[in-house]
Design a protein that fits this description.
seven-stranded mixed sheet; Rossmann fold; alpha/beta; single chain
Length: 187
């Protein structure tokens, strides 16, 4: 099992602790590095990606599936208490549609990471986010508008210790749906 990096730890730190939420859907799981750790921590994890990886190995608390975020019928669960989508949206031409689908899948919390500007240069990145609109960069704060009426927190995180002296960051975007749920129960 590969060790977690700082981004993975920030994702886990963003998990809700109230009511000890235990079901997780990871959309765009890649090799499954964080998923193996979450299963070992006692979470029930359903991990999906557009292609199958040879590192996938199902266990009691962890299942892997090939699925497409643009086709919700391919996702093997209707909802999960926590949904993770890390380092995926920058690759998708229809990332806003994918984001809306992710919100629909999240029962309590959605945790997203995307790179800050062009921090991690990759030829297949189609989308870029910044602190404000400039050039080809979208403003990261668009996530707040897209994710209404839920509570949204956006922070910058470092991926590796060696990035501390550079301008390399990821955005960690946390969408908490409890705000909308609490309003429904108060009425």
């Amino acid at each position: 099992m590969k060790p977690l990096d700082m981004k993975d730890l920030a994702i886990i730190d963003a998990f809700p602790v109230y009511d000890c939420r235990k079901t997780v859907l990871n959309v765009g799981c890649g090799s499954g590095r964080i998923d193996f750790h979450l299963a070992k921590m006692g979470y029930r994890v359903c991990a999906v990606d557009i292609v199958r990886y040879n590192t996938w190995e199902n266990s009691e608390n962890l299942t892997f599936h090939v699925a497409d975020i643009f086709d919700l019928s391919s996702i093997p669960v209707e909802t999960a208490e926590v949904v993770i989508c890390s380092q995926v949206l920058e690759h998708l031409s229809g990332y806003k549609t994918a984001l809306i689908n992710l919100i629909a899948l999240a029962g309590i919390r959605l945790i997203i990471t995307v790179p800050y500007e062009n921090s991690f240069k990759s030829p297949d990145h189609q989308n870029f986010w910044s602190d404000q609109m400039k050039g080809r960069y979208e403003a990261a704060y668009e996530f707040i508008d897209i994710c209404l009426p839920y509570s949204v927190a956006i922070s910058k995180i470092r991926t590796k210790p060696k990035d501390a002296g550079t301008n390399k960051y990821d955005y960690l975007i946390t969408v908490d749906k409890r705000q909308g749920l609490m309003e429904e129960t108060i009425e």
